[in-house]
Specification:
The complex is a heterodimer of chains A (112) and B (114). In chain A, strands 2, 4, 5, 9, 10 and 11 form a six-stranded mixed beta sheet that branches. Chain A has a five-stranded antiparallel beta sheet with strand order 1-3-8-7-6, with no helix packed on it. The relative contact order of chain A is 0.33. With 112 residues, chain A is mostly beta strands. Chain A is globular and about 45 Å long. In chain A, β6 and β7 form a beta hairpin. Chain B is mainly beta. Chain B is 0% helix and 52% strand. Chain B has no helices and eleven strands. In chain B, the strands form two sheets. In chain B, strands 2, 4, 5, 6, 9, 10 and 11 form a seven-stranded mixed beta sheet that branches. A four-stranded antiparallel beta sheet of chain B has the order 1-3-8-7, with no helix packed on it. Classes of the chains: A mainly beta (112), B mainly beta (114). At the A-B interface, β4, β5, β9 and β10 of A face β5, β9 and β10 of B.
């Protein structure tokens, strides 16, 4: 069973601070996706990282895929209240059919 | 990306009854997925539904409890049968984007069983 450990599970910080969310596994993933989910809605795909060592930026969000494709991080600079939500990482496994393995999620609260 | 709608958006059901959740996609997709998200938790895959074949269920989920239909490339249903309070969850439909490995999710169906 592939497991994806996501940390921290809860994070509450002040507006303007920086933060990093981590996803770690002992398994290798073909790619890794990051989602953000707001209450009452489904997860929204933020980014997909495919290549080991890849770094992608989405405004104030920086996503990195580990060299061995077993881990990933999401870094937010100058967090804003609009960043509040549940952040989910999901590793992509292709064994015949494709599956997503989700981390436990990080519930982020940015206080004004 | 794909636009996905689900019906109903929420429901409150009595123990022992069944509820069928519908998922409609605005484009033809090969692979559709059904997930469960229990309160405050992450997502757990229930089954993968491909058009023209039987759904493939994950460990801990069985067809008798969660029968799935996939009559065409834009539509699927998930039935939660003989419900108990432990089935109270958000149920999410997801599709694999055309020609890609990226998944897109519907808004979810919030089910409460009393």
């Amino acid at each position: 069973t592939q497991l994806l450990e996501q940390s921290p599970q809860f994070l509450s910080i002040q507006e303007g601070e920086n933060l990093t969310v981590y996803c770690n596994s002992s398994s290798v993933f073909s790619s890794l996706q990051w989602y953000r989910q707001e209450p009452g809605e489904g997860p929204v795909l933020l980014v997909t990282v495919v290549t080991g060592g890849e770094v992608k930026k989405l405004k104030r969000l920086t996503f990195q895929f580990g060299d061995a494709r077993k881990d990933s991080s999401l870094h937010i600079t100058a967090a804003q209240p609009g960043d509040t939500g549940l952040y989910l990482c999901a590793g992509v496994i292709v064994q015949g059919a494709q599956k997503l393995v989700f981390g436990q999620g990080t519930r982020l609260t940015i206080n004004p | 990306s794909a636009v996905i709608s689900q019906k109903p958006s929420r429901d409150i059901c009595q123990r022992g009854t069944s509820l069928t959740i519908q998922c409609q996609v605005d484009s033809q997709v090969t692979m559709m997925f059904w997930y469960r998200q229990q309160p405050g938790q992450s997502l757990t895959l229930i089954a993968t539904a491909n058009q023209g074949s039987e759904a493939t269920y994950e460990s801990g989920f069985v067809i008798d409890k969660f029968p799935i239909s996939r009559p065409n490339l834009t539509f699927s249903t998930l039935t939660v049968s003989n419900m108990s309070p432990e089935d109270s969850s958000i149920y999410l439909c997801s599709v694999l984007g055309p020609g890609s490995y990226e998944q897109y999710f519907g808004p979810g169906t919030r089910l409460t069983v009393t």
